[in-house]
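Researcher: Sequence recovery benchmark, item below. Answer with residues only.
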């Protein structure tokens, strides 16, 4: 059974940092492109960061460039999102996604991030 379990969300003040983790199981993690999405209240889900299966290709949404860092550990079946200099507009539910094509696309349950003073 495929599972993606996110953790690390919470309440943080503007300018603070959080590190999200997503642990996968039930599939060959190293074969999958991994992505972090977020969904703010009343808005569509958007991709925040993506990392290729081997980690050699990384992309970020313009809104988080220079503040967020995605990384992965294929031995631990884990993808991370280090979030620094957080802003109120970073608030939302953050989802982990494993993607190896339309038939092999999996989602975690999400973790809430709230940036507020």
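Model:
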């Amino acid at each position: 059974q495929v599972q993606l379990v996110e953790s690390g969300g919470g309440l943080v003040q503007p300018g603070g940092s959080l590190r999200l983790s997503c642990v996968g199981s039930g599939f060959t993690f190293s074969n999958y492109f991994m992505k972090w999405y977020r969904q703010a209240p009343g808005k569509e889900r958007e991709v925040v960061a993506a990392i290729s299966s081997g980690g050699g290709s990384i992309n970020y949404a313009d809104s988080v460039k220079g503040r967020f860092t995605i990384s992965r550990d294929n031995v631990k079946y884990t993808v991370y999102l280090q979030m620094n200099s957080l802003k109120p507009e970073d608030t939302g539910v953050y989802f982990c996604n494993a993607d190896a094509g339309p038939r092999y696309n999996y989602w975690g349950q999400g973790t809430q991030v709230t940036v507020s003073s």
